[in-house]
Amino acid sequence: MKVISDLNQPTLVDRSLAAVWHPCTQMKHHESFPLIAITKGKGPWLYDEKGNALLDCISSWWTNLFGHSNPKINQAIIDQLQKIEHVMLAGFTHQPVVELSEKLAALTNGNLGHVFYASDGASAVEIALKMSHHFWQLNSKPQKKKFVCLENGYHGETLGALAVTDVAIFREAYGSLLQDVYTVSSPDARKAKNGESAENVAKHAAAELEKLLEKEHQHIAAIIVEPLVQCAGQMAIYSPEYLRLVRELCNRYEIHLIADEIAVGCGRSGKFFACEHAGIWPDFLTLSKGISGGYLPLSLCMTTDTIYQAFYSDKTQQGFLHSHSYTGNPLACSAALACLKIFEAENVLEKNLSRAQDLANAFAWAKTDSGIEHWRQQGMILAFDIKHDGIKNISSFPREMFTKGLEEGVLIRPIGNTIYVMPPYILSTEETMRMGDAIKRALEKVLA
Ligand SMILES: *Cc1c(COP(=O)(O)O)cnc(C)c1O
Of the residues 345, 365, 395, which one is the last residue of a structural domain? Predict the structure, then answer.
């Protein structure tokens, strides 16, 4: 009887599994691994159909900065909705896109004073890659068209962005569609051996890059990096010294530096832009994820006056003719402006210093656990690795942790054997401690 009534009244989850093809998912795993229908969000909490509360420890794929259903961001979008919801950005402009561009440019002290918009992160990466190569063509160096990327780096999954991504599981099926790139060693501080410093690992990695550039710079347009933290690459953290050395090499060999701050930007690293930790500016800087506070799809690529001026001409085809339908959407830009206002009005970067300390305290237990290694933190990102010999089945470990996390009221999505948190910038000290305890209990259950 139950079966019949189930068939007559499929749940939202049943209907989703029938009609929605979910991202980054082997759909068959949902036979044993729960899919959760979320009906409400408030602050750091997500609520399912039954009213169960889940603490969003990973900011809904690293996008949410100031909580779900934030009254200030809600209001900004509602206000904008009364004015203009969308207009094409070719031939037209509007207040939110102008203000957002001015504010972002000011945050770089004018170093990156020109902002080109798109909707998702991968598209912002495509823009940086295309602009770089196009710039060299305009400067009579059309042979500069190859890109350098880092081992274990991630820049999105459209074909151009995937080509500069080095995460095997995302590339495997598409290798033959991707352009050739140079992949150099990651400065991942976990590589340090016998008391070697993270700075030393960075120097070795930069020396390898130098060898490549020495030989091939005439064919190379740009190097793309995720400043300080390779997030999708298991939260690999590295020394800012690497960015300083890469900046120097790029200057010496006439190569653009693309800083992909889609995950580490917007205060995640401890400063608004992660590049600020190294005291350098790139030639291109991409933002997405947090820029709209996790509300609406928005991405952008910032660049210098030198790049911009190269495209400025009487000739149409010398312009950057790239476009996306929703480029600079006013609602998304107004959400982003509301976020920047919160950063200013509430001294968010300063307060995050103590929130980061709360995070460290909440996960102090993991620092001394003999089954755990590589405890690491960069601002509002904290991660550690479970030693492989303690894990029964590494391929199902992330899903098991996710499931046990649900039982403990926390949303986490480990990457391989790496457990990490990247919470919104609104948790109280008490909520942070509860998060640490809940994840500890979930881990104990999985490893039991
Ligand atoms: C998420 C991410 C991207 C891709 O952004 P999408 O919006 O998912 O296309 C690119 N680069 C980095 C560093 C990211 O973390």
Answer: 345
